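Study this chain:
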Amino acid sequence: MSLSPEFQSLLARSFEGAGGIISLFNGEESTTWAEAREAYVAQLEKTLLPPPEVTFDMVDLGGVPTLRVTPDDLDEGRALLYLHGGGYVHGGPGAYRSITGHYAKKLRARVYIPDYRQAPEHQFPVPIDDTIRAYRGLLDMGQDPKQVVFSGDSAGGALVVTIMRKARDAGLPLPVAGVAISPWADLAHAGESARSRDGRDPTGTNVEILNKLVSLFLGNELPSHPDASPIHADLRGLPPVLIQMGENEVMLSGGISLAERLADQRVRVTLEIWPGMFHVWPIFVGHLAEADEALDNAVTFLLREYNRAASKS
């Protein structure tokens, strides 16, 4: 599939703020990680605007600062925990005002985006620990888990599954479902797509960059650790999961392996592979027809699971 010149221009503008991150990847110390993240998030926030009729404020979830998204038309009690991407290094909640604003309106739910601490200042397992603390914090606020769903993209897509498993192991109530968008599920990049798709993704996501992120995030930990790569984890007993992958992603094989792992361990899983699509394309909702359709599929899936949980109450 060829992308229109107008969309290619939008794509280029979206990532204009990544210069500081790239320089740090290359060993240049012209900026700090905090400054580089701020510039990256600010550019995405400026380029990908949220829909009308949603409001944003900051709340505390278990000591984790969290961006809360509230639609004007709200089904009181319904919540989505959104786990942002960025390779555990360079994302931030502000970059996701658009997709979470659309999620909030379509689900009629409050959306919570934890601002978990990131590498290299805070390496594995800090981002994971912060995210499970945020989920605990949401439950401690009195949130009914039967009205909670998860979603996330890239590293956050893997966290959707990992935080479900961590909640299970801690004896916490589980959400009713999760949507993993382009999950970074295999930090060893052992699958065929790491070779056959490398260089094809128009977002610039490639194996060289991913390996740098792995080094920054994991430090001395192995990429096969189940908290880092959920394809190696015990996933039994988790709620239904929808996985959405773009066909041009170097992470495609990892997403397929994650779906196989879930299925093998008797978790209901739906896998969508979108021909011609690239890493985390649904964040371009409102600008790309395939992003709109993918998000609608995710919303349909989550609404069905909300309703199924409600019928069992």
In short: The first strand starts at residue 54 and ends at 61.
